[in-house]
Write a structure and sequence with these properties.
two-stranded antiparallel ribbon; mainly alpha; 19 helices
């Protein structure tokens, strides 16, 4: 064991000698750990009991300045005196960009406060967070209920739907929670008031942005509406950034990834962002919403580019694009045109230019319909036809076999062309000298008699014809052998 320990120590010494700057690496690691320790209180501040350490947005100078400018602008009204100036240099446009960024910060702050309220009120009513999901509705219900254990004494009408109110009341009667202490209840109610204040500030910011969208982006607002236009601008980072963005990315602005919990994505709806809240999209049938969303995104991008260069301050181009979108969607919903009956072509009574001939007659006769097929294709009135499988099943035979013979076979007569060809061949064979080819002759030279007459056909087939030509000779006879004793 001692030798093994010595070898480990030797390996450690070699590693320490080969490393370049281990002290600096350790120092960097220590620095990273110190930075991580500095950041940890910010992450863990969400669980602190102090509300001021959780929510810090309302005490910032940026929040107060923007809200003061928004209130002054809403009281002053809309000023269109500097419409011809450059849009990026307009102070009101800069205020709109700041408001869009502030609205995102307010949403994040509301979520943080919502987590604080849930952690505090979970001791009193742990099932409420699974019944009421919206942060603002949850804050209103918590503020309304307070420390009351019997929810029949609490009027929640107007805060939640009637079905949800009934479920909350039934669940509260069987909950395992206990009343909160005075200190925790006071902190919870204060957090609810702060969340409601932030929500009111957010609505005021959005109202200001929507009221100015008719001046900042009139064409875009004409297509998607002021509220959706302000959200698109805020997410994209301004009107100029929105104008430079392709239509396929505009379609996904504001889209949230859906958690399907392991189920298939085949039945899930396609991803749509803020364009889902437009009037045109909502009025489109579900089967056409994918195409409609792409069309709205494309036209919205064109409208944003027009607004970025102040091309049409009146918004007429946006209204024309909106009308074009509606016409296309209506065109998609039209049924296909009915098929008109196609009339038969005019019969051609003029003589054909194509000549007839022997080859054409042979082709017609080769593919002509036989008498057997003519009978099979006809049926006699009042008499059932015979079929291959019986009882009218299988292939029908028509009038075959119904002439009284009881047979299905029909004697096929020889065609005129075949008879003519056979007759012509017979005349040719009789009129010839019997030679089968031009190289054969009836004269033969033999060493015994010299020149003699011979039969070329017999030489061509020395064994003769017939079925017995391969076994017996046609000229030979059977010989009788006498038995010898």
């Amino acid at each position: 064991m001692a030798s093994l320990a010595d070898s480990f120590l030797a390996d450690l010494d070699e590693l320490s000698d080969n490393e370049g700057y281990p002290e600096e690496d350790n120092a960097e690691a220590a620095g990273m750990e110190e930075d991580g320790d500095d950041d940890m209180p910010d992450l863990e501040s969400l669980n602190y009991d102090d509300l001021d350490s959780v929510s810090k947005l309302q005490k910032t100078q940026r929040y107060n300045d923007i809200m003061q400018k928004v209130e002054d602008a809403l009281q002053k009204g809309t000023d269109f005196s500097n419409q011809g100036s450059i849009l990026e240099e307009d102070p009101e446009y800069q205020l709109i960009v700041d408001c869009n960024a502030l609205s995102v910060d307010i949403e994040n702050e509301i979520i943080i406060i919502h987590n604080f309220i849930r952690d505090k009120y979970r001791l009193k009513f742990p099932e409420l967070e699974s019944l009421v999901h919206h942060p603002i509705d949850y804050a209103r219900v918590v503020k309304k209920i307070g420390n009351e254990m019997d929810l029949t004494l609490v009027d929640l009408e107007g805060l939640l739907p009637s079905a949800i109110i009934m479920v909350v009341s039934v669940t509260a009667s069987t909950t395992s929670g206990k009343p909160l202490s005075e200190e925790n209840l006071e902190k919870t109610v204060e957090a609810c008031d702060r969340a409601l204040t932030l929500d009111a500030a957010k609505k005021k910011v959005l109202d200001f942005v929507e009221s100015r969208m008719g001046y900042i982006a009139p064409n875009l607002s004409a297509i998607v509406g002021s509220a959706v236009a302000s959200k698109l601008m805020g997410t994209a980072g301004g009107l100029g950034a929105l104008a430079k963005m392709p239509a396929c990315n505009v379609q996904l602005l504001g889209a949230k990834r859906k958690n399907l919990a392991g189920f298939s994505t085949a039945t899930s709806q396609f991803r749509v962002g803020y364009l889902e809240h437009t009037e045109v999209f909502q009025s489109t049938p579900p089967a056409l919403r994918t195409r409609a969303c792409r069309l709205i995104a494309a036209k919205s991008t064109l409208a944003a580019r027009i607004d970025s260069i102040r091309g049409d301050p009146t918004g007429k181009a946006g209204r024309n694009l909106l009308e074009e979108i509606r016409k296309k969607i209506e065109k998609w919903q039209e049924p296909p045109p009915a098929k008109l009956p196609k009339p038969l072509p005019v019969p051609d009574s003029e003589p054909k230019k194509k000549r007839g001939g022997r080859r054409l007659r042979k082709m017609k006769e080769r593919y002509a319909q036989t008498d057997m097929m003519k009978l099979a294709n006809r049926m006699q009135f009042g008499i059932p036809e015979e079929s291959s499988l019986g009882d009218g099943l299988g292939e029908g035979y028509g009038m075959l076999g119904q002439a009284g013979s009881g047979k299905l076979r029909v004697s096929a007569g020889q065609s005129k062309l075949a008879a003519k060809v056979a007759k012509k061949f017979k005349e040719k064979s009789y009129g010839s000298s019997g030679a089968t080819s031009g190289l054969t002759s009836s004269l033969a030279f033999t060493p015994v008699q010299g020149i003699e007459l011979s039969n070329p056909q017999a030489q061509g087939n020395p064994l003769g014809g017939g079925t017995q030509s391969t076994y017996f000779s046609e000229t030979g006879t059977f010989s009788k052998i006498r038995r010898t004793q």
